[in-house]
């Protein structure tokens, strides 16, 4: 006996687990989804099985459905049971629902017809009642019910035994697999033991090597300790020498700071005298350049003259454009007068001739006048627009040039005022310097004539005068720098 499983998606039945049971002479499909095995019944045998089960007691709808579903399986079971819901008026229903005593059924001396169980080839278990003659009394009905109950329960028990045998075969196969897995695990365990032994031997060899290296390391460490003590002593000696050298360096730095101020003062004096000399040379050069033709003042004068000439030219161009505009306006008025005269003559000419010819000619004349007037207006407007744009550009240029000229004139006036102030300041400083020099000469003469005590006083005055003269020279250099910056 063999079993094959079939899922619900393949057979089209939902929530069922169908398995094919291969018996010696036939095959049966059964549902194994519940605890009780139920055979599957095809469509031609469903009515027969339902009639047999329902005809035993003619129970209600729920009871019959429960009885059928506990033993068999097929789709749309409620559709088959619906016609049998209204069978209470049938004579068989009434006969089956009568109450019979048991002593009528106990006597089994009479003969009864044979009831056989047929198993079809289309995998269906069906029960057929083949009673040939009608029953004389109710004994046959009781025997029939008992036989039906037995023959319905027998295949279920057989199916259960078949499933149990299959489960046992499956368990045996699983036990064989588990035995094979155990053998494989034992083999692996032996291989692991061999592998662990190899690694333990390797670990022992490595431990020996590490022990030897550790001994060698301890020896080298002792040697390095001796060398370290020697190097520390050398470092201490060198540190003492470095401290002595640092003391000498500090003394030299103090001397450098002591002489640094003196050097800086001398350097500042030399730089001040150099700047004074350069400033004097630059002032002399600047005065020469300004006086020459290629100087800034001369260039500014030539630029002003050139701008004035340009301004006069633009004025003339503006006047000529205004005259052109007046001529254009006059020409436009003449054209308008000529057109009005022509229209007046055409009206008179129309009145003299026929209506048709007059209309055609009038249309032609009118079209020509329109074309001429359009051309005139286009030309006049275009010329006017161009002239107006040119005039506006010229006016804008003239205003811009005027503003530039005014700015240049103001800058020239400011520069001249600054130059005059600088010249006056220079003259005043030179006069003061000359007066101080004359006083210094007079003091020198007096010092030569006076006694030693007086000589001491004169030296003090000379020192004061020299200080004042140095201050004046410094002020002069600042003034010259300021003048150069302003220029």
From TrEMBL:
PROSITE patterns: T_SNARE
GO cellular component: cytoplasm
Domain T-SNARE coiled-coil homology: 386-440
Alphabetized InterPro entries for the sequence: CCDC40, DUF7041, T_SNARE_dom
Any one biological process term the GO annotation gives: axoneme assembly
Protein name (Swiss-Prot/TrEMBL): t-SNARE coiled-coil homology domain-containing protein
Source species: Drosophila yakuba
